[in-house]
């Protein structure tokens, strides 16, 4: 860390118009998209080592493609819910940056205009030898034999366990600057994504809406509730310029 960064936390002013909304699988649960660690979660049915790691891809790419093709079909049959829509409403008065761990496109389809996917996007495929070659595939499946322009097998544009998250620096900067932070529907089990929340300013208003959490982040007001019921409530308070709690 450079010496002048020591001064940063003392002198940095928060952007009063900036809100960061950090979301996880729980915000899409009421849209019918399975979470990972709840009772009917994906990791209770599949072994993440067999479908969501570079080793899994090397060992059995067809199994990995089948897993993501099934999830992509589920996403494409789902619709955004009131929580996604409430977050869009915040844009009437604030600069809203959605930082999501989710690979679904429900924030996009709800109408959010600034979304950072730190774990990738299921509606995109990429080259398995050049990660800069990324292709929009929408709801199409990826099959063995589908290749990029370098003729290598296409893979899901998803961050697998053991791979670095995407847009880490950009996401950190937004969390640092935000005057308000709303966390929705995440167990905060997976780092470094979960660690982003520790970059929030002491002076920022920090609220978390989730049914459960592994470890409540320090300084966050925790509301144990469904996203579709309490996210609109928090948004309503912020649109009136009031503190949520
Ligand atoms: N409303 C609010 N919260 C909910 C709801 C709901 N309707 N349903 C479930 N939740 C909460 C659960 O209590 C849990 O805390 O959402 C959280 C879901 O946790 P996980 O299944 O662990 O999902 P997530 O936190 O997004 O996982 C992070 O792990 O496997 C990786 O890459 C994957 O991005 C994912 C990351």
Characterise this structure:
- The chain is α/β, with parallel strands linked by helices.
- The protein folds into two domains: 15-32 and 80-119 and 166-245, 3-Layer(aba) Sandwich (Rossmann fold); 34-77 and 121-158, SIR2/SIRT2 'Small Domain'.
- Helix content is 32%, strand content 21%.
- It contains ten helices and nine strands.
- It has helices spanning 3-11, 26-29, 42-45, 48-51, 54-59, 61-76, 82-89, 106-110, 168-177, 227-239, and strands at 15-23, 95-100, 115-117, 120-127, 134-136, 154-158, 178-184, 205-210, 221-224.
- The strands form two sheets. A six-stranded parallel beta sheet has the order 3-2-1-7-8-9, with helices on both faces. It has a three-stranded antiparallel beta sheet with strand order 5-4-6, covered by helices on one side.
- Strand 4 (120-127) and strand 5 (134-136) form a beta hairpin.
- The longest helix has 16 residues, at 61-76.
- It is globular.
- The two termini are 35 Å apart.
- The mean pLDDT is 95.
- It binds adenosine-5-diphosphoribose (APR).
- Adenosine-5-diphosphoribose (APR) binds at residues 24-26, 29-30, 35-38, 41, 101, 119, 185-187, 189-190, 210-213, 226-227.
